[in-house]
Specification:
By secondary structure, the chain is α/β, with parallel strands linked by helices. About 30% of the residues lie in helices and about 20% in strands. α2 links the parallel β2 and β3. It is globular and about 45 Å long.
Length: about 170
């Protein structure tokens, strides 16, 4: 069983209006949400074999925070423009091109593309795919056969709903 993790970038900052949309960094809330999600990912032993990430600053920063939770080296990620400028079909193409020996992939990018992608792959209505939301999909076929409706939505994690507790010493 293959898994597709779809992560929308965390909340970005609008404090510097001179920056282009592409260059906007994470806001403090975005940083906190990404750290919280990373801790959750690590505690649930989620692992990925490949990462495909948008080149936009806020997406890269989000991945930088969650990479440790997935135990994935930042340098091994594939950074592409299609996750910022492209649509659902562009992302499908990148996933279809994955080596079939890979069992899991993390896609980090933006709405509306990622929201539409989750709905398209799972035939499931998602009311809202907010910043730093992580969808986990299962898939039973070869990557090159990926098409609409072929995945199952296993979980949708939202930082505001994740309860974090620390073990007492």
């Amino acid at each position: 069983m293959k898994e597709i993790f779809i992560l929308r970038h965390a909340k970005s900052s609008w404090s510097n209006m001179n920056l282009s949309d592409f260059d906007r960094p994470l806001a403090k809330r975005g940083i906190n949400d990404a750290k919280k999600l990373s801790f959750f990912i690590e505690n649930n032993c989620f692992k990925v074999d490949q990462v495909i990430c948008s080149k936009a600053k806020r997406a890269k920063e989000t991945f930088d925070f969650v990479a440790s939770g997935f135990k994935f080296s930042i340098e091994k990620a594939i950074y592409i423009d299609d996750l910022y400028f492209g649509g659902v079909e562009d992302v499908f193409t990148k996933i279809k091109d994955l080596d079939d020996s890979l069992e899991s992939v993390l896609v980090v990018g933006h709405n509306p593309t990622l929201h539409l992608m989750v709905e398209n792959l799972t035939d499931t209505y998602i009311k809202k795919f907010s910043t730093c939301n992580l969808a986990v999909l299962s898939y039973k076929d070869s990557w090159n056969n990926l098409t609409s409706g072929k995945c199952k939505l296993k979980s949708l994690y939202k930082p505001k709903e994740i309860k974090i507790w620390k073990k007492s010493k």
